């Protein structure tokens, strides 16, 4: 699966707690993305990164922060989880100039 | 908002060609058409992309009309494993990276 892993794969947490999701790649690709997928909305971009320490917001970034301290890892943090952040989260990677994004297996997050 | 329009669903008989339509009437001259699919609960999978010429790979063919306002993804011999949600996407440039904007896609059901 294009050398992408996500951890954890499943998580249940309580409202107000911090949560960090990890995306790890072995491909050394420059671009990494975090999406969320909810019924009726398809996939929506949360944040993306175009290099180490270079990140930018997507269309649904409120309530989320990201960090990329090394090429292979892109972390998504929910500082204080809310029930509206219950979703399936997908990470994707893309090589410069490739025009193809490859997706990880997803993390199912439930906020109670 | 997605810049493409797809029918919500389509059925196809196993072994027959599946022709999946997509309208993108507002596409710009330098925007590419991409197709991805998502099999139940998995991460989206890249299928094919094109600018203005027809394209073919081991998975599918992409036919883009001369005015580029619509395209058709062709799965030449559909199998049960091709049952999935198919996304037609126009690539939108954004800053240092070109993001994918996923709409709701089209559910293809391949019947035995």
Q: What does this protein structure show overall?
A:
- The complex is a heterodimer of chains A (112) and B (112).
- Chain A is mainly β.
- Chain A is 0% helix and 58% strand.
- Chain A is built from no helices and 11 strands.
- In chain A, the strands form 2 sheets. In chain A, strands 2, 4, 5, 6, 9, 10 and 11 form a 7-stranded mixed β-sheet that branches.
- Chain A starts with a strand and ends with a strand.
- The model of chain A has no long low-confidence stretch (mean pLDDT 92).
- Chain B is mostly beta strands and 112 residues long.
- In chain B, 0% of the residues lie in helices and 48% in strands.
- Chain B contains no helices and 11 strands.
- In chain B, the strands form 3 sheets. Chain B has a 5-stranded mixed β-sheet with strand order 1-11-8-3-4, with no helix packed on it.
- In chain B, β9 and β10 form a beta hairpin.
- Classes of the chains: A mainly beta (112), B mainly beta (112).
- At the A-B interface, β4, β5, β9 and β10 of A face β4 and β10 of B.
In terms of topology, how is this protein built?
The complex is a heterodimer of chains A (about 110) and B (about 110).
Chain A: E1 4-7, E2 10-13, E3 19-25, E4 31-38, E5 42-51, E6 54-57, E7 64-70, E8 73-78, E9 87-94, E10 102-103, E11 107-111
Parallel strand pairs in A: 2-11
Antiparallel strand pairs in A: 1-3, 3-8, 4-5, 4-9, 5-6, 7-8, 9-10, 9-11
Chain B: E1 9-13, E2 18-23, E3 33-38, E4 45-50, E5 55-56, E6 61-64, E7 70-75, E8 84-90, E9 92-94, E10 97-99, E11 106-111
Parallel strand pairs in B: 1-11
Antiparallel strand pairs in B: 2-7, 3-4, 3-8, 5-6, 6-7, 8-11, 9-10
The value of Rg of chain B in angstroms is 13 Å
Segments of chain A where pLDDT lies below 50 for 5+ residues?
none
Mean of residue pLDDT values of chain A:
92
Alpha-carbon Rg of chain A, integer: 13 Å
Percentage of helical residues of chain B?
A: under 10%
Identify the most extensive interface between protein chains.
Answer: A-B, 28 and 25 residues
Largest sheet of chain B: 5 strands, mixed
Give the tally of β-strands of chain A: 11
Rounded mean pLDDT of chain B is: 90
What separation lies between the terminal Cα atoms of chain A?
31 Å
- Oligomeric state: heterodimer
N-to-C series of helices and strands of chain A: EEEEEEEEEEE
